[in-house]
Specification:
single chain, alpha/beta, 2 domains, five-stranded parallel beta sheet, flavoprotein, FAD
Length: 408
């Protein structure tokens, strides 16, 4: 006869691409009577972060409320902003409409992700806009809509986000004077074919490019660079991402970037009851290179963590999901795109898809990623395994032993 056990409490914090995916996958792997899964998020609906440049120019995005996405799965949504984590007491503090409250967990999945990185450049916080999240994209939408024809709009950052933003703005608002400032050459990470196509699209959209230029200050009406001032009625800052600072405020082991150090199963090296996924995790990929912060590398870490948690709780074989790259999908407005094929460790190869077909490819990728989150328990075999009392006890004991050792 099966021994009764208390439900193993899994708390997932952050419901972006990775957190929502992990919660849904866990619900598919484990029995609800054995495990409770709580998903903590500040907003009641899923945000397609890869489309924030579209939202900023006034395009309408399809709503994806979590109560519909997780209906019938057993995943409980707790609305609130994570304001504290005590990994030694194993509690998460979430602040919602009714104030702060603590959630106890047996296993924590940390998926708080990242936000814009100002790089400490003076004036950025006060005068620049960001599109790393919905609130920032909506503020930028209002600002762009109020601009008169001929107004200068400057995008700082020549990476994927900056390129997508500049081309979206220029295509939607050809009456604006759009420019992009890049610290290196435009598309210098691409293959020759890819770089030529990117430069062609920029030329057709009349985007001014300031290459090999570093921004040293941002003002209300301009940006100061190493090559002089560039006019900017609106400045959009896209120079990379910075992880949520809350991990560094805990006793979790983190790297120089503030990302949580993990093993191959996404388990924290310092606290075995914590798993970190997506941008929050410092994950070593092919070629011993850290995976870059992106949806493409984040979702596989969510699969790995969810499957590893399920395996450890049920006594199954630990899975291994290979985290590698295949291509970089870049939208260049709604009519143009660029698919740069890459090696496993993200280096461009001499092959690229361009033009309208590439734009359709990118759109399918975006829709596929959103569908995977909106349908978290579909497409997987039904293999809800039983959690054994011994396994649940072993996981809790291992975590407690580590905490006690560190305290000593």
């Amino acid at each position: 006869m099966r021994q009764n056990i208390q439900q193993h409490r899994v708390v997932v914090i952050g419901a972006g691409y990775t957190g929502a995916t992990a919660a849904g996958r866990l619900a598919r792997r484990l029995r609800g009577e054995d495990v409770s899964i709580t998903l903590v998020n500040a907003e009641p609906d899923f945000v397609e972060r890869v489309r924030m440049h579209q939202l900023a120019v006034g395009q309408t995005l399809r709503p994806r409320p979590f109560d519909e996405m997780f209906a019938g799965t057993g995943v409980e949504l707790r609305l609130g902003r994570v304001t504290g984590i005590d990994v030694d007491r194993k509690t998460v503090t979430a602040t919602g409409a009714d104030g702060p409250s603590d959630l106890e967990y047996d296993t924590l999945v940390y998926a708080l992700g990242s936000a814009w990185n100002t790089q400490g450049v003076p004036g950025t916080t006060e005068h620049a806009h960001e599109i790393a999240g919905r609130d920032g994209a909506l503020r930028l939408r209002d600002r762009l809509a109020a601009l008169a024809p001929g107004s200068p709009v400057t995008v700082v950052g020549g990476g994927l986000t900056g390129v997508e933003a500049a081309t979206e703005f220029a295509e939607t608002r050809p009456d604006l004077d759009v420019s992009l400032i890049a610290r290196a050459g435009l598309g210098d990470w691409l293959s020759p074919k890819g770089a030529r196509h990117l430069q062609k699209v920029f030329g057709n959209l009349r985007i001014t490019t300031h290459e090999y230029t570093t921004v040293t200050a941002v003002h209300a009406d301009r940006v100061t660079t190493t090559e002089g001032d560039v006019p900017a009625a609106v400045t959009i800052w896209t120079t990379g991402f910075a992880v949520h600072p809350i991990a560094r405020a805990t006793t979790l082991e983190t790297g120089e970037t503030g990302q949580i150090t993990v093993d191959a199963t996404m388990r924290s090296l310092s606290h075995p009851d914590v798993y970190a996924i997506g941008d929050a995790a410092l994950v070593t990929g092919p070629g011993d290179k850290p995976l870059r912060m992106s949806c493409a590398s984040g979702v596989p870490t969510a699969w790995q963590a969810a499957d590893a948690i399920a395996a450890r709780l049920t006594g199954s074989k630990l899975p291994t999901i290979s985290a590698r790259y295949f291509n970089q999908c870049i939208s260049l407005g709604r009519k143009e795109g660029l698919i740069q094929y890459v090696t496993a460790d993200d280096r461009a190869v001499n092959a690229a898809l361009t033009g309208r077909l590439a734009a359709l490819y990118k759109e399918l990728v975006c829709k596929g990623a959103a569908w995977g989150v909106a349908n978290p328990t579909m497409g997987l075999p039904t293999r809800r395994r039983r959690v054994t009392a011994d396994r649940a006890r072993a996981e809790t004991t291992a975590a407690g032993t580590t905490a006690a050792t560190e305290a000593a």
